[in-house]
Specification:
single chain; alpha+beta; Ribosomal Protein S8, Chain: A, domain 1; Wheat Germ Agglutinin (Isolectin 2), domain 1; two-stranded antiparallel sheet; 16% strand
């Protein structure tokens, strides 16, 4: 990233974000994203260096201008600021505009949880999802994430697309030559399809019908409408539009648990809830939100992060382009 001209603050933020996502098994949001991110840097649609600017809206609410830099960077700075506001006022909210794709919401709610906060993180994205009853994409996959701290440091993390599946799943299924589940996507004519190549020219459907649709609209309002960011077709595709910034918006909220009770009392109450949830099924069958991520984290901490051949190839090509040797050899 340094070799491609990315400033140091963004280098540290984005690289940490990508590696963390790989560590917790979200490989589609890890180093596999580096090639497209660097292409956007080369095309000048991600600003380096990036000069963030906060605007105070009230004691506990601020607006962050992302200056067209990396969404991962703006959101990490933003969630840290939201946590500071929460410590001072009980709740802190930072809206972000003039940003780009930010990766996974789980990364940021975990950051808030480390600081003793319950976090809520939303982001809009370029249209890939049809409205309920519609046949054309008008909403993004619009991720919705929340997190809560645990005494053992392994925060609860819930992170979902408000679509029936993530856009990265379509790209992965195209690459693998596999079909999609039924009832999740429509083709360019608005007809149901399981063919991921046709889905790429059609639209995803909201998860759970009206429920996912309503949440997607909520995300668009909070992260796009009120922040002044792009809305619907005003958000640009990171894969197809290399003429302008993504114009993404984010909504980052932190709730200070200490305003409600001591952290120790909170941990006791939360662990009681967790024990009740775990005991509701056969031993080991009931998982907590984020538990699978921590399982991947443990495995990858011991064995290293597995890189698919396509990702290794892309990293090698990036390294060759700037005269850097990759730290591995191919058999």
């Amino acid at each position: 990233m340094r070799a491609f001209g990315v400033d140091e603050d963004q280098v540290l933020s984005v690289s940490g974000n990508l590696i963390w996502n790989d560590m917790v098994g979200r490989y589609s949001q890890g180093l596999s994203r580096l090639a497209i991110l660097m292409k956007r840097v080369r095309q000048g649609v991600v600003r380096c260096p990036c000069r963030l600017r906060f605007e105070r809206l009230s004691d506990s609410v601020e607006l962050l201008d992302g200056n067209d830099g990396f969404g991962q960077y703006a959101s990490e700075i933003g969630v840290s600021r939201a946590s500071d506001l929460a410590r001072a006022h009980g709740v802190g909210i930072v809206g972000v505009r003039n940003s780009n794709f930010f990766g996974t919401g789980a990364f940021f709610v975990h950051k808030a949880a480390i600081g003793g906060m319950i976090g809520l993180v939303l982001s809009n994205s370029f249209p890939k999802v049809a409205a309920l009853g519609g046949s054309k994409a008008v909403l993004g996959t619009n991720p919705f994430a929340f997190g809560a701290p645990r005494r053992n440091g392994r925060s609860l993390m819930f992170d979902m697309s408000t679509a029936g599946l993530a856009g990265s799943t379509i790209r992965e299924q195209i690459r693998k030559g596999m079909l999609l589940p039924e009832g999740l996507v429509i083709d360019a004519n608005g007809k149901p399809t399981t063919d991921p190549t046709k889905a790429a020219f059609g639209a995803l459907l909201p998860f759970g019908g009206a429920k996912g649709y309503g949440l997607a609209v909520l995300v668009e309002i909070l992260s796009g409408v009120i922040t002044g960011a792009g809305v619907s077709h005003g958000v640009a595709s990171m894969y197809d539009n290399f003429k302008e910034s993504g114009h993404n918006g984010h909504f980052l909220m932190a709730l200070d648990i200490a305003r409600w009770m001591s952290l120790e009392a909170y941990y006791e109450r939360l662990e009681t809830l967790i024990e009740t949830i775990k005991a509701s099924g056969p031993d080991g069958q009931v998982q907590l939100p984020g538990e699978n991520r921590w399982r991947h984290f443990d495995e990858n901490s011991g064995k290293g992060i597995p890189l698919e051949a396509e990702t290794r190839k892309a990293l090698r090509e990036l390294s060759d382009a700037c005269g850097i040797c990759v730290p591995w050899s191919e058999d």
